[in-house]
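Data availability (excerpt). The following record was deposited with the supplementary files.
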Amino acid sequence: MLILLASLTGTSVLIPQINAELRPGLVALRCGSSIAYNLTFAAFMLISGSLADILGRKTSVYFWDSAFRSMLIGQRNSSQHPFYLMLRGLSGIAAAAMMTAGSALLAQAYAGKRLAKAFAIFGSAAGAGLSSRSVTSGLPGWFCRMEIRVRIAPRRSRRHSTAHYWRA
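Predicted structure:
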């Protein structure tokens, strides 16, 4: 969760460094990069939530998590601006799918006060992701990715017999 929303804000700080490597021009890179991720992230929230309900929430989280990571690796290794933008858009779709499936998984796994606590952590991770990436994006290397995984302790749910994990 943290890295998903950090990707919304962090690219703004990295634009000059990415431009030095890909050379598309600052305006084209800024507009294209923001539109590619932010627009697909927002546009696919509802669609991906419905898809997670149909295909299974846990399966969706695992699939889109690996897809998101693959897109990040592809963005780092891209040498052409159009390819970078395509991967940026696809990572926005994967982020939206992970976020909606993950929140639905939390709602399914917990009830009462534990549900409120789980969503408090979920919301805190969202706020931390939006604010922290702008600060950490200036670290050495234009694509220095911060991945912090927050796990809600794997306990047996009263409603379900399996342990539930959440990656933030």
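Summary of structural features: The radius of gyration is 17 Å.
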